[in-house]
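Side project, low priority. Logging it here so it doesn't get lost.
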Amino acid sequence: MSVDVAAQLLPVIVACPMAVACLLLAAARWMPAGLANAIATATAAGVTAAGVVVWSTTHRTGWVVNWIGNWRPKADFSVGIALIVDELAAGLAVLVAVLMTCALVYCHRGYAHAGNHFHALMLLFLAGMEGFVLSGDLFDMFVFFELMGAVAYALTGYKVEDKSAVQGALNFGVINSLGAYLSLAGIAIIYARVGQLGLPQLGFALSGKPADALIVGAFALILTGLLVKGAVVPFHFWLADAHAVAPAAVCVLFSGVMVELGLYGAARVFWTVFAGTIPHADVRRLFLLLGVVTAVVGAVMCLLQRHLKRLLAYSTIAHVGLFLLSIAMLDSDGTAAAALYVAGHAGVKAALFLIVGVMLDRYRSVDEVELHGRWHGERLLVALYFVAAFGLAGLPPFGGSLGKALAEEAVAVGGYRWGPWLYVAVSAATGAAVLRAGMRVFFGWGPTPDESSEPATSGDEKPDTGRMSAVPASIKAVIAFLIAAALAMGVVPGVVTGMSAAGHNFVATSQYLARALSGTSTMRTANEAAAHWTVSGVVLGVVSALVAAAMACAAIWAQTLPTVLSKAARWIEIPVRSVERLHSGHVGDYVAWLFVGTAVLGGLLSLALR
């Protein structure tokens, strides 16, 4: 496929879902929901195919650029809008479309009550995410960022008859909107300073110039909104509230890719705009701190949950911390490792959310205690649940485990020898929480939990669909596909080499600027053969999976632990419960933490001015 054809597909990937969404709304009165779902699914599948074409082109040529309306820059100045895609961005665009297709296939049964509005919102969500990934303009990234956010608020509170859904959507909307306003303020500052909004133009204008207070302040504000969407501590409080009430198909997109887009945006803006002016050491310090704190807080909160959707949401936060830790190395290896880790994590996490959605539809609850021993039948789903749980824990040869191994190596090479053990601990903790829930729900292992020992985390759970007497084959197929895809990423030859090349191109700022501004032909960056599985990576992956299983069993049979271990657990419980109490559920508290986080970002980045 030629570069010109791939370039022409870029606006189609964004515009097509928007156009179809409008048609679905226009025909809402006479079009049955089943037909609307089929059209929406076909649209998402078409976007996937177009994304694959673009990705295959970037795999050969490095970059694909489309200046909308052919308004190309002259003398490094332009008022035109550019869509600029490298291999990593194209791969992320494909991931977005694949997860949307799977989510819509899951929705084809039992969503008749949702009407065409639900499917139109899903397509607008797809368009917002794709536009954010493909955009080469800072303001357009914000526009698509806001489209993505506004639709996400509506999807979160879609079950409007449920008060908890409205509250979750409100918390989501308030926190993310405030973050977006701060980002917009940062964009305004940088525009006033440079007079440009295109990523390549900004990068060219700032490259080699020392950072001043305006540049650092603008970067801190822009970063705030992106890290809010990325659910990085202390901007993360909205995530669990949103996941707890959103439909399972929507949670697939939230955890599988939307949150990760915040990290992608932070990395993209840094490398293309600010890498030539803000010292890397200051940004690395900031990302390292945020990554470690996010990973630890997410893992602790994950272990404390009995509401399965909240449990999975906090596991996403924990893994976001690990992704950010890899990105913090600010090199191609760390970036490539994070990309593979994200892709592998998306497959197993999406599968787990869909299985939990089946639980909710069948038993009207996702409370681990209420569901103790109640699951009957559907042995395939039980098997898939535990396979995905061990994949989340880092068991080889899943793609997430391979990404984890590469991230561990990148962090260790970066001089942080403790890094691999943090990856093991956090992966084991999140995997243990998921395994513990599965052992109780599916097998009824351990004593029957005392429901009065802890406050209930389930309210009036509203099912996504009607009660399922049997799980449709299409849903089983989607779950199996997601797990198989996550597994294939760890065993298919060439995956690591491709990711390594994508990481090299992502951080190749000078080549990005040359391709976007001058239109010169640049080929895929040559790089050394990337390592695949290593002995240490396999060993640490197996260790994290075994520790996860041991922790899950210990949690189930906690009453039988030796006295010494029980006393140690009680001492650990004090700081753990303190962390839990910070998650109050009050939006006012979350707003306060948002501004605390903004102050921390500004303070740490201000060290660049010394």
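Brief comment: The longest strand covers residues 63-67.
Revisit when time allows.
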